[in-house]
Amino acid sequence: MTHRRPILIAGAVLGTLLAFAPEPARAQAPAAPTEAPKAVPDSVAMNPGPWSTELKLGLGIEQSSYSSNWSGGDQGAIAWSARTDFLAERQFSRTFNWRNEVDLAYGQTSRQRPDADNPDELKWDAAEKTTDLIFLESTGRWTLQAFADPYASFRLDSQFRDDSNPLGRLSFNPIRLKETAGLAKVFRKSETREFITRFGVGARQTIGKTIVQQDPQVTDSYSSNDGGFEWYTTMREPLAGGRIDYRGDLLVFAPLLYSGSDALEAYDAAQTALDPTHTQVDGYWRVPDVNWRNQFTSKITKVISVDLFVQLIYDKFDTAANVDLSDPIAQNDEIQRNIRLAGQFKQTLSLGVNFTVF
């Protein structure tokens, strides 16, 4: 039994030494977990590189047709829409980002109507425009990793066909240009997510045409300018575990100056002389313009998707109106056509084919 005593004593001594040994003697012990790296709001700015581009093409078609003796009285319709979305963005360095975006969309709908000459037959109406958009924006942002980033932006808005004038149609009318500069706050920006809000001052120019004679068509060109403050917020967020892609933007523009203000005051004075109950409209242009767009895209397959688009607009007076017409009757029609006392709402739901080219 005595030969085991040295072993027991040696084990007890070794255990005591290990228990009271300094930190270097316990280097084999597992290290304590380290704190996770701090999240960076703008991860794109931290990784300068080549151009990041994205091109999407979409086409949606819906068709229905009925015979003239259909018991339900339903009427057929053909609706189609095409859309192109292009995005090119590059982080040139850790201090400068340049983003360019182009959105083009156009769609028409044609319906079956009873033939006026033969009520027992149905005929197809001429196609009417249901979607029309030309949008281009280029934004340079100095990513200083501070509270806010200085930015400068240029924007163009128009449409392929203007059907608002009862005398006829006009192409690419009106054309709206806007230049803004200010500060942008990046709350989150990565390859798949974005939440940026910016505030600045801007100037807008409108170049338009109006019809002064119907047959043959004679047009008159006009232009207007206004300026004020802009608040613009953009967001992109994957929803439902990435199965739905949400993109939205909210634009508020508060005009302070308008080149047609004197013409509106003269218009009110003339209308009041004819009708003392006339409602003054010369201050409508000062009301802020609001444009809120929301798009939800859910892919069923690689190329087939369901798209929901919802847009809310409040523009009490469209400053793209021609307020300098010499004809009082024509001026009244033009101004009243551009007054919208209530908000405007647009919603489209489509199932279509979408291709991501690159």
Structure report:
The chain has 358 residues and is mainly beta. The protein has one domain (42-356): Outer membrane phospholipase (ompla), Chain C (Beta Barrel). Helices cover 11% and strands 52% of the residues. It has three helices and 15 strands. The strands form two sheets. It has a twelve-stranded antiparallel β-barrel. The longest helix is centred in the N-terminal third of the chain and has 15 residues, at 5-19.
Extract low-pLDDT stretches.
1-29
Number-wise, the strands total: 15
Provide the helix percentage. 10-25%
Largest sheet data = 12 strands, antiparallel, barrel
CATH class reads: Mainly Beta
Major sheet strand order = 1-2-3-5-6-9-10-11-12-13-14-15
Mind telling me the C-alpha Rg?
32 Å
Q: If classified by CATH, what would the architecture be?
A: Beta Barrel
Helix and strand composition category:
mainly beta
Mean pLDDT: 84
The topology string of helices and strands comes to: HEEEEEEEEEEEEHEEHE
Integer count of domains: 1
Q: How would you describe the shape?
A: flat
DSSP helix count?
3
Distance between the termini: 83 Å
CATH topology: Outer membrane phospholipase (ompla), Chain C
Q: How much of the residues is beta strand, in percent? A: over 45%
Describe this protein with a few key phrases.
two-stranded antiparallel sheet, 3 helices, 15 strands
Q: Could you give a short description of this structure?
A:
The chain is mainly β and 358 residues long. It contains three helices and 15 strands.
Q: How are the secondary structure elements laid out?
A:
Elements: H1 5-19, E1 52-64, E2 77-93, E3 96-114, E4 122-124, E5 128-141, E6 149-158, E7 161-162, E8 170-171, E9 175-189, E10 194-213, E11 218-239, E12 244-258, H2 261-274, E13 289-299, E14 304-314, H3 328-337, E15 344-356
Antiparallel strand pairs: 1-2, 1-15, 2-3, 3-4, 3-5, 5-6, 6-9, 7-8, 9-10, 10-11, 11-12, 12-13, 13-14, 14-15
